[in-house]
Design goal:
alpha+beta; Immunoglobulin-like; Glutaredoxin; four-stranded mixed beta sheet; 17 strands; globular; disulfide bond; Thioredoxin_CS; TlpA disulfide reductase family protein; cytochrome c-type biogenesis
Length: 487
């Protein structure tokens, strides 16, 4: 009986393993330390796992896909270094990258054999269309001829899409069509040293806008699906068209819902904007993934809007005592999120100490929250002691730092935040202690007044210009501050 059970267990284990998909890769001539795997949900990528890169450059992923389709390997969630590949349960794929280019290596599945041909055909123009800051700083004068050369080969490529997988064949044909549109539009709608006039544009641009452009939801299964949808709506729409008018370029409720969340959520000023948005568009957020996304936006807006309730964190202080946000209720609270490895953070410490001295008789609690690595807790404690840092000193560690970022969206540190006596948000992007405006804001809050939010403006490299026809695109950040993570 035991032998039978053992054989059954071995069979189940072997069967389960056969459902696992495997990606093996090598990163050469690059300083990358880790690389990530993403799945595609509603036209956007979502992180699945991260793999360390060995000293020999090797990395890998072993997982069971929920559904067959495209997955993305890369190290930049913003989209600059992402390399898609197609996987079904039990598939294996081998790739190589130098941090810039990706290629398939060795025998592949029939699907990735076809897709690798597409990658080889389009990789040069893709790089020029997306990496607009990298040399040779491509302009329309060199890009248009190369694009048209690739375009002349697309029909011949489509004739090679003849695998036994009808699902892949259908999606690959859509990609061959949409990818060319996406690259042409991304090139046109990103900053360049020189931009073409309408008369200088390729004839191809006149073919992009089409009635019933998206007859099915294939676009939401593609690695750059949402980016293309944003570009298409920006290119096709009138300069002063509303969000609702632009959403009409899309066909299904799922397409409209995904686009509305992606574009609309970035314009919310407060929680009231969110509730009004949901009231108007909730009919489009009926799938589980879209409902989850809009709910997450609401939660973040609630925690991130002036007047919203502060997140009740729970971190240890320098004496080993747990401190929560609720413990600080009753006084105005200034929070400084920092780390010992962050140069700009340490530059603010003397100003913070001076501010504490000047406002020592006011109802203000000064709190510093470190997001140093868990292994650097002793280093943090010694630094706090040596610098004679006052106020409430808390250690959040790496996990706490990620939680803070999820709640308050902190792409950079130091981050200074002000809360009133009732634990309500006053300003999540407050001025630094070196700026006199912070002292004024704290005094206003003590007196029961509300300060205004400070918004840092992104910039572009010198010499770059935005195209005159560009619609509402996400800004390119050139913030030189340290990122939240030090990995």
């Amino acid at each position: 009986m035991k032998k039978i059970l053992m054989m059954a267990a071995l069979f189940l284990s072997t069967t389960a393993f056969a459902q696992m998909s495997e990606i093996r890769g090598v990163a050469k001539n690059t300083t990358l330390k880790e690389i990530s795997l993403f799945k595609i949900v509603d036209g956007e990528i979502e992180l699945m796992a991260t793999s360390s890169i060995s000293s020999t450059g090797a990395f890998g992923f072993l997982f069971e896909p929920e559904n067959e389709g495209f997955f993305v390997v890369g190290y930049d969630k913003l989209g600059l270094a992402q390399w898609p590949l197609y996987l079904k349960k039990g598939d294996k794929a081998s790739i190589a990258t130098d941090g810039k280019w990706m290629k398939f290596v060795g025998p592949q599945t029939p699907e990735n054999t076809v897709y690798s041909s597409w990658v080889n055909l389009t990789q040069d123009i893709k790089y020029k269309a997306i990496y607009f800051i990298d040399p040779p700083l491509s302009t329309y004068k060199d890009f248009f001829p190369e694009f048209e050369k690739v375009l002349s080969q697309v029909d011949a490529f489509k004739k090679t899409i003849k695998t036994k997988n009808a699902t892949f064949n259908h999606l690959m044909n859509s990609i061959a069509r949409y990818d060319m549109d996406y690259l042409a539009l991304n090139f046109l709608l990103t900053p360049r040293k020189a931009h073409p006039t309408e008369a200088e544009r390729m004839p191809y641009y006149s073919t992009i806008e089409q009635k019933n452009k998206f007859p099915d939801d294939d676009i939401l299964s593609m690695p750059n699906g949402m980016k293309f949808m944003r570009s298409y709506a920006s290119f096709t729409g009138k300069p002063k068209s509303t969000l609702k008018e632009r959403s009409e370029y899309f066909t299904t409720d799922v397409q409209k819902g995904a686009y509305l969340i992606e574009v609309g959520a970035s314009s919310f000023r407060d929680y009231r904007d969110y509730t009004n948005f949901v009231k108007e568009y909730n009919q489009y957020f009926q799938t589980p993934s879209l409902q989850e996304k809009i709910d997450a936006v609401g939660k973040k807006m609630y925690h991130g809007s002036p007047g919203g309730t502060a997140w009740d964190f729970n971190f240890v202080d320098k004496d080993g005592k747990m401190v929560t946000m609720k413990d600080l209720k009753g006084k105005v609270v200034l929070i400084d999120v920092w780390a010992t490895w962050c140069g700009p953070c340490k530059q603010e410490i003397p100003f913070m100490q001076k501010l504490e001295d000047e406002l020592h008789d006011k109802d203000i609690t000064f709190v510093s929250i470190s997001i140093d690595k868990d292994t650097d807790k002793d280093k943090w404690a010694a630094f706090v002691n040596n610098m004679k840092m006052g106020g409430v000193q808390l250690f959040a560690g790496s996990a706490g730092g990620k939680s803070l970022d999820q709640v308050y969206t902190m792409p950079t540190i130091p981050r200074f935040m002000v809360f009133d006596r009732d634990g309500k948000i006053v300003n999540l992007k407050a001025p630094r202690p070196s700026d006199p405006a912070l002292k004024a804001l704290l005094l206003q809050t003590v007196e029961g007044k509300t300060g205004s939010t400070v918004v840092q403006k992104p910039g572009l490299p010198p010499g770059f210009k935005m195209p005159a026809s560009m619609g509402a695109q996400k800004p390119v950040s050139t913030d030189a501050q340290k990122p939240v993570s030090n990995n």
